[in-house]
Amino acid sequence: MSDDQIAVHEPHAKPTTYVEPGPADRFENPGLPPHRPRRADVDDAAAKRAERQVTTLFGLSILGTLGFIVAYFLVDPNLRASILVIGHVNLYHVILGLTMAISLLGIGLGAVHWAKTLMPDTEIVEERHLQASDQEARDEAAGILSQGYRSAQLHRRPMLLLTAGGALGLFALPMALQVAGGLGPLPGDTLNHTVWRKGMKLLIDPSGTPLTPEMVTQGSVIHVLPEGFAGESSHGEDGPSALEIMEVKATASVLLVRLNPELIQSQKQRDWSVDGIVAYSKICTHVGCPVALYERQTHHLLCPCHQSTFDMTNDCEVIFGPAKRPLPQLPITVEDGYLVAADGFAEPVGPSFWERGE
Amino acid sequence: MSKLATYRRSPIALIVLLFLGLTFTGTAYAAFQPTAPTDAYSAANAAEDVDDVEAGQKLFLANCASCHGKNAEGNGTAGPSLAGVGSAAVDFQVGTGRMPLAAPGVQAPSDPNAVNFSDQEIAQLGAFVDSIGPGPGLPDEEYIDLANADIANGGKIFRTNCAMCHNSSAQGGALTRGKFAPDLMNVEPKHMYEAMLTGPQSMPVFNDYTITPQEKEDVIAFVVNIQEGGNSFGGHDLGSLGPAGDAVFVWTFGVALLVGAAVWLGRKAA
Amino acid sequence: MTTIPQGAHAVRDQSAAATETTADDADPKLPPPVVYLDERFGVAKGFGLFKKVFPDHWSFLLGEIAMYSLIICLITGTFLTFWFVPSMGHVIYDGSFVPLKGVGMSEAYASTLDISFDIKGGLLIRQLHHWAALLFIVGIALHVARVFFTGAFRKPRELNWVIGTILSLLACVEGFAGYSLPDDLLSGTGIRAMNGFMSSAPVIGTYMTFFVFGGEFPGESIIPRLYIAHVLLIPAILVGLFAVHIFLVFWHKHTQYPGPGRTNTNVVGFPLLPVYTAKAGGFFFIVFGITALISALVTINPVWAYGPYDPGQVTAGSQPDFYMWFSDGALRLLPGWLEFELWGFTWSFNIFLGSLLLLPLVWTILGVYPFIEQWITGDKREHHLLDRPRNAPVRTAVGAAAISMYLVLAIATINDIIAIKLHLSINDITVALRVLFFVLPVIVFMVVKRLCLSLQRADRETVLHGTESGRIMRTPEGRFYEVHEELNEFDRWHLVQHEAQRPLSLTAGPDTDEYGVDRPVGPLESLRRKLSDFYFKDRIEPVTPSELAAAHHHGEAEALPGGTAQAIEESVDRADETAGLRSDDRP
Predict the structure, then answer these.
(1) Residue B64 half-sphere exposure toward CB, CA atoms < 13 A
(2) Are residues B248 and B144 in the same domain?
(3) What does the pLDDT profile of chain C (587 residues) look like in tens digits?
(4) Is B48 domain-assigned?
(5) pLDDT digits over B21-63, tens only?
(6) B249 is in which domain, residue-wise?
C-alpha cells in the first residue's frame, strides 16, 4: 500500500498534490429539516387516545403498588411454586418483585409515552459559546491574581510562600502516620512456617478421625488437617479459636494420596512417604486456592482456580498452568499405628512472595 | 431449464453443497459407529434359574471380554483388570450406561439410553466380576433410603470432598485434557453411593473409613435436596453457573431490554 | 430517514392546524412554594435552566443507565446495611435454611442468609442490589464505548473523560468489595486470590498483605474493612466525582450527532422542562422497573448454595463477577516460567503482570487516550459535533482491537465452563487463548479499519449516484436501467458533513525553509509524524459539490436529473406531443 491517499484510486478522488479546498467547495448545512407533526399534534382523537394510554399506565403503576403492599402482608413468605421456564421459586419473592416492577414500569413508560406523544416535538436551537473566555476577561483575571499575589507581599517575601508550601505539604503526615503505623502486624517469620510439627497426627477434615495406613487405600484422596485443629481434638477450653482454625486451614491443609510405589519417580518423595502414601500441601503455589482435584488415573492434581496442574508421581512438579513451584511435601511416618508428620514442611507453603527466595 | 438448475450458479449453491456433504458424511460416520451391543443371551437366560456367576460369565464374554479379557484380567490399554472392583463398580458402570464403552474417547460418559441390560443381568455381571476378585458390594438399603440423613452434615462433607470437581451446586466441572466431573442432577442415590465407593475413572476412591456409610448417605441426601430444587429461591438459576450465567444474561437480555427501552424513548412518535 | 406511519398521511396533509394545546397561559403566576423559596434564595432567576436544550439520541441514555443503576444500588444498599453484620466472628447458623443448620460460619455470612430467608422481601432487595450493580457496569461499558467511538472525549471534554475513567475503575472495585462481603465460598476464594497476588508484589508484597488483612490470611479484618470501603469511602468518592461529571455535561452542554441544522456552535434538541424531565425521569423508572423485573424472575449470587468460606474448600467453576474477568483470565493465561529467583528474591511476574500491573495499566491507557490523540492530530479546536465512527477509521479500529484483547482475557476466565459445556480440553482452550491474545487484536484492527473505509466509500457512492428506487425504465432502443433517486439535501448532509483529518506531514508546513535547508525534526516530533501518518494516511474525502456536479455531467449517475434519463423522458414527451397526446391524457 503506497503512502498516497486511498482516494487517489477512486474515480472522483482528490489530486495527490495537496490543495486546501476553498470554502466554496464544501456542501453547506441545509438547516433544520421541515417539522413533521405527529398524529397527536393534528388529530384530536389520536391525542385523546395517547392521553388514555398514559393514564392507563400510571393507573397500572398504582395497582402494582397496592398489589405489593397487599402481597407483603397477606402472602405466606415461605410459599413455593414451580413456574414454567423459571423453575422452582419462592413465590412470595416473585410476587413482590413483579408487583414492584409493574409499579415502577407504569410510571416510567407512562412518563416517556406522555413526552413522546403529547409534549412539544419541535426542535429548538440554542447557541453555544466558546469555552475559552475572551482576552478582556483573561486580562482581568490575570490582574486579579497578580493583585492578590502582590498585595500579600509575596513578590518581595518569597520565604513566606516557601515555608507555607512546606508546612501545607507536610501537615497531613501525622494523620497518615497514625493510620499506617497502626496497620500490622509485620510479617516477620510467619509465612515461613506452618503449625505442622514432628509427631502431629494427620486427621480427616472435617470429622477429625485420625488415620492409619490401612485406611488409605489405592486411589483414595483424603483431606487432612493437623492434630488439634479438627473434630474432637479442636474442642475444649484449650482448643484453638475459630480464627486460628481458619488460619491453619489456609496454610496447613494437606492432601493424602496412596500411589503405587513403583510410579514414584523422585527418591526424596519416596523417602518422605509411607508405603506409597504421600502427603502434599493443599495450598496452591500460584495464588493460594486449595488444589484439590485429584485425577485418580493420571495422578495429576488440578487447581480449579487457574488450572495449575501438578504431577503427583513426580514430586508434584508443575506440568501446566500459571504456577511455577511444585507443591511442598509433608514428610510422614507411622507412630503407634497412626500416620503422623515426621517433620514440618521444609519450605514455605502457598503463594510466592518476595522474600521467599530459593 | 428447471427451477433448481436456475440456482446452480448462485453463491448459495456452494454453501448448500458443503452443508449436504457434511450432513452426509456425518450421518454415515454415526451410522457406522459401534453402538452398545445388545444382549445376545438374555432370551436364553430369562426363564431359567441359572447360577448368577455362570450367567454373568456368558454376558461378560459377549459384551465385555473384548476389552477386559476373557477372565476380566485386563487387556492393556483397551480395558483395565476388573479384579477387586466389586459388584458395586459393575452396577455403577453398567447401570449408568457408561459400560460397555460405546466409543473410545477421553472418558466414558453416562448415557441412560444406552443401558441395555436389565437389573437382573447387571446383578449377574456383578456376581461374575466379584468372583474374579472380591470387591465392594452394593450399598445397604438403609444407607440410600435417605431416611435418617443429615443434609447439613452432608453439605460439609460435600464441600470438602466433592465441590471442587462437581461444583458446589453439583453442576459438574472441568478436569484436564477434556475430562470432566459430570453434573449430578439426574443420578440415583444408589449410583452416587457406588461412585464414591469405587472411584470410577478419574474420580478418587472414598472408602468407608474416610467417608463412613452414614456420611455417604448424608452427602447423597444433600445432593438429592439440590436435585429437588432445594437451592432455588430467587428465580431462574441460569444453570447454577454463578457469575458466568449472570454475565451472559445481563449482556444479552439485560442489554436488549435497556437499549430497547432507550431506542424506543429516542424515537419520534408516530 | 423518517418513515411515514400508516393512517396519518391524509390527516397530516390536510391541515396545518394543530390541536388545541393552549401551551401558552395568558397570565401565568408563580406557585406559592416557589415564591417562598424565591424570597429566601432568589430561585426565580435560575429558572432559565429549565429551558436548557438537550440533543436527542438513544445512545445518550447509556450513561443514564449507569447513573440510575448507581441510585438503585444506593437505595437498596442502605436497606441492606440495616441487617448485614460486617463481622468475621464465628457463629453457628440457626435460621430457616435447612442445609446449613448447625454449620459454623462467619456473622457476615449468617446475616446474609437471614436477609435472604428470614427478612420479608430481603432476597428481593439483595437481588435488586446485585443486578443493579451488574447493570451499572454494563451501562458504564456501553457509555464509554459510545463516547470513545464518537470522539466525544475531544477538547473541551478531556478532563471529563479522565473523571469518567476514574469512575469506572471505582465502580469495578466497589463491585468487587460488595460481592465479597457475604464471605461465601465463591467470593472468599476471590479474596484468597487477592491475598495471593498482593503478596507477589516486589519488596512490599508481604507487608501489604499483612497490613490489609491485619495479619495472616484470612484474619478477622478484611470483611469489616471492605465493608467500610464499600458503604462509605468509595460511594462518597463515586457520588462526588459523578456530580462533577454531570455538572460538566451541563456546563459544556451535551455533544450532538451531526445532522441538518446542527453545527459545532449550536445545540438542537428539546428543553429540559417538560420534555427531558419526563423522558429522563421516566427512564429512571424504566431502568428501575426492568431491574426489578429481572430481580423477581432470575436468581443472582445464591450464596446459600456455595456455603460459608473455608480456606480448605473450593468450588469448580470459580469466577469473579464479569468486570473482573479480564484480570482473572490474565492470571490463567500467564505462564509459570515468568516467575524466577534472582539475588535471593522471588520475582513473580506471572502473578504481578496479570493483577497488580494490569489494572493500573489498562486504566492509565484509557485515561490518557484523549491527550495522545490530540498530540497526534495537533487539533486544538473545540469539538461539539460527534464523529460517525466510520469517519475516524483508525480510532475505531484501535478501540475495537483493544476491546478484543480485553475480551480474550475475559473469556479466559471461563475456560473451565467452556470446556464442560462444549466438551473441549481446558488445556487446548488455554493455549489457544494465549495465541489469540496477540493475534486477534491485529486481525480485528485490520478488519475494522477496512470496514470503516469501505463504509465511507459506500457513503460516497450513495451521494454521487443516489439510492436505488427500484423502478426500471426502458429506453426506446431497448436498454434497461434503474432509476436512482438523488438524496435530498437533508439526508445528503449526514454523509458529506465530516472532515477527513489529514496527517501532520501534509498540514504541518513544508519540510524545508525558504533556503531549501531541512527543518530539524526531533525524535519526539518524528514519532508524532509517524503516528499521524498511521492514523490518517488512509482516508476517504467526503463528496464536494463540484464532484457531484461532475457526476451528473458524466452521466454515470445516468438516472439523475440532467443525465441521460432526463433526456430520454424529454424525448418521450416530445414524441407524445407530436402524436397529439397531452401529458395528462397519457395512460
Answers:
(1) 27
(2) yes
(3) 445 455 555 555 544 444 445 567 788 889 999 999 999 999 999 898 888 899 989 999 999 999 999 999 999 999 999 999 999 999 999 999 999 999 999 999 999 999 999 999 999 999 999 999 999 999 999 999 999 999 999 999 999 999 999 999 999 999 999 999 999 999 999 999 999 999 999 999 999 999 999 999 999 999 999 999 999 999 999 999 999 999 999 999 999 999 999 999 999 999 998 999 999 999 999 999 999 999 999 999 999 999 999 999 999 999 999 999 999 999 999 999 999 999 999 999 999 999 999 999 999 999 999 999 999 998 899 999 999 999 999 999 999 999 999 999 999 999 999 999 999 999 999 999 999 999 999 999 999 999 999 999 999 999 998 888 889 999 899 899 888 888 999 999 999 999 888 888 877 776 777 787 877 888 898 899 999 999 998 989 999 998 888 887 765 445 444 445 555 556 656 666 666 555 455 45
(4) yes
(5) 888 888 876 665 444 344 433 443 343 345 888 889 999 999 9
(6) 139-253
- Which chain A residues are closer than 8 Å to C344 by Cβ? 357-358
Instruction: Point out the residue among C15, C214, C253 whose CB comes nearest to the CB of A42.
Output: C15
Residues of B within 8 A of C134 (CB-CB) are 246-247, 250, 254
d(CA B19, CA B28): 14
Q: State pTM to two decimals.
A: 0.89
Chain B residue with minimum CA distance to A93? B234
Is B91 contained in some domain?
yes
Residues of A in contact with C288 (CB under 8 A): 104, 108
- What residue spans define the domains of chain A? 39-117, 191-356
The verdict on a CB contact (< 8 Å) between B172 and C316 is yes
Specify the number of domains making up chain B.
Answer: 2
Axis crossing angle, helix C545-554 with helix C426-465, rounded to the nearest 10: 70
- Which residues of chain B does A221 touch, with a Cβ-Cβ cutoff of 8 Å? 204-205
Q: Do A105 and C121 touch (CB under 8 A)?
A: no
Kindly state whether residues B186 and B109 are assigned to the same domain. no
ipTM: 0.90
- Determine contact: C277 vs chain B, CB below 8 A: no
Could you give the C-alpha distances from A342 to A200, A208, B100, in angstroms and in order?
8, 19, 45
- Are both B123 and B144 inside the same structural domain? no
Listed residue (C329, C323, C299) closest to C172, CA to CA: C323
> How far apart, in whole angstroms, are the C-alpha atoms of residue C216 and residue A150?
57
**Do residue B178 and residue B222 come from a single domain?**
yes
Q: Which chains touch B (3 or more CB pairs under 8 A)?
A: A, C
CA distance A241 to A233: 12
C64, C208, C217: which to substitute to probe chain A, counting the most A Cβ within 10 Å? Answer: C217
B131 and B143: one domain?
no
Closest CA to B203 of B226, B218, B224, B187: B187
Q: Which residues from chain A sit within 8 angstroms of residue B210, using beta carbons?
A: 204, 215-216, 220, 222
Q: Where are the alpha helices (H) located in C466-563, listed in sequence order?
A: 489-496, 504-507, 523-536, 545-554
> With contact defined as beta carbons under 8 Å apart, do B95 and B36 qualify?
no
* CA distance to partner chain B, nearest, from residue C280 (Å): 9
Give the distance from residue A232's alpha carbon to the nearest chain C alpha carbon, in angstroms: 15
B residues 107-166 closer than 8 Å to A (CB): 156-157, 160-161, 164-165
Q: What distance in Å separates residue C543's CA from the closest CA in chain B?
A: 29
In a domain, B18, yes or no: no
Out of A27, A242, A350, whose CB is closest to C104? A242
Second-level CATH architecture of A191-356: 3-layer Sandwich (2.102)
- A119 and C2: CB-CB below 8 Å? no
Q: For chain C, which domains are there?
A: 62-387 (1.20.810.10), 464-526+542-585 (no CATH)
Give the strand pairing for A202-204 and A309-311: unpaired
Residues B99 and B127 in one domain: yes
Indicate yes or no: CB of B179 within 8 angstroms of CB of A90.
Answer: no
Cβ of A122 under 8 Å from any chain B Cβ?
Answer: no
**Facing B210 at nearest CB: one of A90, A222, A300:** A222
Are residues B60 and B128 both part of a single domain? yes
Residue B217 lies in a domain: yes
| CATH assignment of the domain containing B168 | 1.10.760.10
CA dist B146 → B134, B225, C75 (Å): 27, 11, 44
